[in-house]
């Protein structure tokens, strides 16, 4: 799905701001059937949970409703008009006046509706968006809904971050000509000093297509005819980590001799390859330094915020990070575009977190059920997972910053049924995009001896917490465990290995002269122990600390005001470990230490 852009033939109106808001119990039977009768207003983009002081809203399980009036620009007469929702977590329904125009399941990818037949240029219409936050065994991510003794519905889930919900990203109204570009796929390559640009254009109807490539200064460097082809850029400037360079593919749709639509898709020319135990970008070994992150800030929850976007990338630059993983869901498109422009490398992940009932058993003491079965996570779950992969790749396929697809985080990959569940998903991912490596992040219970799916993937991404959840406070023992673990993976599979999670909860300002868990000193010592081991493993290609910043989790006795493994606090103040990481990472520039 193409991102809405203003072009010579397209216009767009941003619908962010304050919308009327109500939970389902207060919204009436048909919230879309008239003006929403509510005193509440909610900010868009933002999760709704922390906006209000009413705990009933914060803990609500079910549907909520947003509504506002929208005026179609009078100059849009004769154009197609679309409403686009960048994300509705976890399910969305869109109504124009009292007509349902779109439905979508999946909380982190966009959807849209052509509303041309329901609106009139120059006139207002009532836009109502319902958002459902329920997670079940058939959703990605999964969850369970129970009813308490007093009749309240309660949502539980298997991921360790708050189930923020609502319209956390922008909503748009935009126009396109009747004959227009529907999709563009760009596949870059390099032949010596020449860049190759394979392209494929899908249009709304039979039409001529003309394309040209412009450089960063707008100068034309290549041209072509037809909806499919390969263009060549002499003396190409490559997109490199830390040194981004973007071209633009300008697509013109022809209605006879007339240009009906113009759309420009930014792209970078670079290659990605796994060779032996090396991860190569543009044929050069690349070493990942960075973080697992979260879209999480005070009050906004998962709501996208450009100020935090800029500041977070500034902090990553300051600390020497060259990459991050979109744990544990696709991030806002603004984030991906910023990474493209600033040369930050991205591992792009689906929302498939929590496919692991063994973890639930370990936390609760209740014997776990099998993770993969018709009664737990079966064919319906896998189809929801497959759809999440399709939508992720469709949205992010042209981003040069994206160098690897991560299909899941910490699934129960050592269990019966894991291979039957994941093998078709890996095949689908490779079919949709054969140009990028594929990975998953392996939970600590999955070892080189018992894991059943690692051979399907290109890079071994491991989440390990020796010294925190295992051998807590005993870093000498933790170091022995970690090195033995990593060497086992390296010897069995002969693939690149990176750590996609390692970290220790740390209360800012808590200090000790001893290696005491939760202190800032222990977080530093913990990270240093991991780094000593990493540097001894020849196949190692990267380190992503968990987490960039502290983040909110569900209520419970396992967390005190959220997960505190951040190197920065939730409001982005550095802990002592941030300075230690900066000393290690600054100057590496993607090279092996």
UniProtKB/TrEMBL annotation:
Domain of life assignment: Bacteria
- What sort of enzyme, by top EC class, is this? hydrolase
One Pfam family recorded for the sequence: Glyco_hydro_2_N
Q: Which GO terms describe its biological process?
A: carbohydrate metabolic process; glucuronoside catabolic process
Q: What is its EC number?
A: 3.2.1.31
| Residue span(s) of domain Glycoside hydrolase family 2 immunoglobulin-like beta-sandwich | 180-270
Q: InterPro entries recorded for this chain?
A: Beta-gal/glucu_dom_sf, Galactose-bd-like_sf, GH, Glyco_hydro_2, Glyco_hydro_2_cat, Glyco_hydro_2_CS, Glyco_hydro_2_N, Ig-like_fold
Q: Where is the Glycosyl hydrolases family 2 sugar binding domain?
A: 14-177
Which GO MF terms does the UniProt record name?
beta-glucuronidase activity; carbohydrate binding
Q: Which SUPFAM superfamilies match?
A: (Trans)glycosidases, beta-Galactosidase/glucuronidase domain, Galactose-binding domain-like
What keywords are assigned to this protein?
Glycosidase, Hydrolase
Q: Which PROSITE patterns match?
A: GLYCOSYL_HYDROL_F2_1 (PS00719)
Q: Which residues form the Glycoside hydrolase family 2 catalytic domain?
A: 272-587
In the record, the note on similarity to other proteins reads: Belongs to the glycosyl hydrolase 2 family.
PANTHER family xrefs: BETA-GLUCURONIDASE (PTHR10066:SF67)
What's the protein here called?
Beta-glucuronidase
